[in-house]
């Protein structure tokens, strides 16, 4: 990864947990790191602590203490990077909150809106503000930190799952929109024991330490990585690709819903499932199959 020495990387939510692990890993790799984490009144800056740790180990890092969901935060975070290093090569959009645990009947709208402000709207704002700078880089990389909850759901945390599902859809769309540029956009869904997932912040199994998911984040934001529009799972030094797929399905001969009931197994058969780049491609494929089967029915 010699091409990444001197690379300028912003990591949000990097005062602890996964973000800190990503920032430290890039610091060891020779990048210049902007360690972002909100400052809390009366508490030492966790962002400055991680940045100081990177510098003490021989790396180059500066702290940014803006809360990602504050008005004007996106431009302020970018200004910290540009003032310090003059350019931006990669952004790891890690900042997020889990929100209160609650099932559907106990959901509080204010909690849902607060969660979406941090996990989705603030993420969108920083991605949008950073894009011109990433386009100016010879190898701009945008990495959205999501969750398996956004793919599969998670009991008791539907707002969190919904926010991460929104992040996934947004990231895949940006990847498609920017595919002809030099910018590469991907998603990482890390598994790790952090303050968000473990009550005392200490992993019961060291294998699930945040640092064991960091290698994938480094690869996806490196100059050498040409992947685009991918969702990668990472945890315990094990890595997987995830993808959204559609079964081939079957065409009904008429509009009778009884046909659906009789053929639901065939409709759901995933043996020859396919993935698509963008919803337009998925629709075009379904429409082509529907037209073909309709014409066969009239033959």
From TrEMBL:
Domain Ketoreductase: from-to ranges: 7-201
PROSITE patterns associated with the record: ADH_SHORT (PS00061)
Keywords: Oxidoreductase
SMART domains: PKS_KR
Pfam families named among the record's database cross-references: adh_short
Family statement: Belongs to the short-chain dehydrogenases/reductases (SDR) family.
Protein name from the UniProt record: SDR family NAD(P)-dependent oxidoreductase
Taxonomic source organism: Sphingomonas colocasiae
């Amino acid at each position: 990864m010699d091409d990444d020495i001197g690379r300028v990387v912003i990591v949000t939510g990097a005062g602890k947990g996964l973000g800190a692990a990503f920032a430290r890993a890039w610091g060891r790799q020779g990048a210049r790191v902007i360690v972002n984490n909100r400052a809390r009144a009366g508490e030492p800056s966790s962002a400055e602590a991680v940045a100081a740790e990177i510098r003490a180990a021989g790396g180059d890092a500066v702290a940014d203490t803006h809360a990602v969901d504050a008005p004007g935060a996106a431009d302020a975070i970018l200004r910290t990077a540009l003032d310090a290093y003059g350019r931006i090569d990669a952004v790891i959009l890690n900042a997020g909150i889990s929100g209160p645990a609650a099932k559907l009947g106990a959901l509080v709208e204010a909690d849902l809106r607060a969660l979406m402000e941090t996990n989705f709207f603030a993420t969108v704002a920083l991605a949008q503000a950073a894009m011109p700078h990433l386009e100016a880089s010879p190898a701009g990389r945008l990495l959205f930190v999501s969750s398996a909850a956004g793919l599969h759901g998670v009991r008791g945390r539907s707002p969190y799952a919904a926010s991460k599902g929104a992040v996934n859809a947004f990231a895949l769309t940006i990847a498609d929109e920017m595919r002809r540029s030099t910018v590469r956009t991907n998603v990482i869904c890390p598994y790790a024991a952090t303050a968000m997932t473990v009550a005392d912040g200490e992993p019961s199994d060291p294998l699930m330490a945040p640092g064991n998911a960091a290698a994938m984040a480094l690869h996806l934001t490196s100059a050498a990585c040409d992947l685009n529009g991918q969702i990668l799972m990472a945890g315990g030094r094990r890595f997987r690709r995830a993808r959204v797929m559609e079964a081939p399905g079957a065409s009904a001969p008429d509009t009778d819903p009884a046909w659906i009931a009789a053929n639901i197994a065939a409709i759901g058969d995933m043996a020859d499932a396919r993935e698509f780049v963008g919803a337009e491609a998925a629709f075009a494929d379904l429409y082509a199959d529907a037209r073909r089967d309709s014409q066969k029915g009239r033959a």
